[in-house]
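Annotated sample (chain length 328).
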Amino acid sequence: MNTVPTEFVRLSSDRLKDFTRQAFLEVGTRQDDASLIADLLVQTDLRGVFSHGTQQIDGYTQMMMDQKVNSRPNIQCSETGPTTAVFDGDGGMGHFPSYQAAQFAVQRAKEYGMAGAVTRNHFHFGGAGKYSRMALAEDCIGFATSAHRFTPGPGQSILSASGASPMSFAIPAGQEPPIVIDMGAYIGGSGELSQEQLFQNIPATFFKFIGLGAVAHMLGGFMAGIWMFDPEANSDAWEGANQGAFICAIDISRFRDPDSFKQEVDRHQHNIQRMTPAPGYDQSNLPGTLEYQREQEWAQIGIPISLDHQSTLNRVAEKLDLDLLFSS
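Output written by the structure step:
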């Protein structure tokens, strides 16, 4: 899903952002919130992470229309110390409290060196990289992870125990693109191979992702308190508000000069670029470079929207009585 489509129509980020904002306004979202989530979703498309960009509008707006997600949440922040806070999402989209949590973490990290926050009582927060990257502008390292409420069943394989939890690290560089790891802790079946067959070939990889998924659930799930809002225990809870997050930031200047740090990151990337590329690729780069390159280019020439993506956006337009973005 997150490969550049071979058949597509390019759409400017401004036009896609305006459409997205209008869609959320139609289901009752406030002006500021609609603008924010539109910006975050289009940012994600610009980096080629289409799975977590505007293709999600259809599901998000439907959850609001079905009264499973609060379209007008009142985000509450409880500061539990100078460098820690809890953000309650009031049953709405996870993008809103998570964005505020990332802002808090970066601001307090610049004051105190490190800071972190959890979010809870909300739905999906989208791609984790949106929040970790907010630290880069302030010469901070960012980290974000999330988890959703689920109960592992006795008949399920442990190979799916990670719960597909996302996590992202963002590390600033100098002249080179920042290093950004944005991934899900999950390995699904590939082609004709099942999880069990993949496990036979790469067992160590499965164990690593099971461990990463467990950490995500401890930080973004249990520490965030997502089980406190289980509808089975609380009749006032929003059905879709089953997720939480943990977001933190670290100020590099508390450990060493940020400029010299970034120069060394650049030098390391230059060495990486001289290595032999992975099979099927023509460049050797650390994570984040390809997405950075797409973001810079597509902001100028438009985002490539695949046929399926076009259909999804047109379906949203028809459902919400908006002008179609694409002709049939």
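Annotation: The beta strands are 8-11, 76-81, 84-88, 114-122, 140-148, 166-171, 179-184, 243-251, 303-306.
Annotation: The chain has two domains: 1-66+286-328, 75-273.
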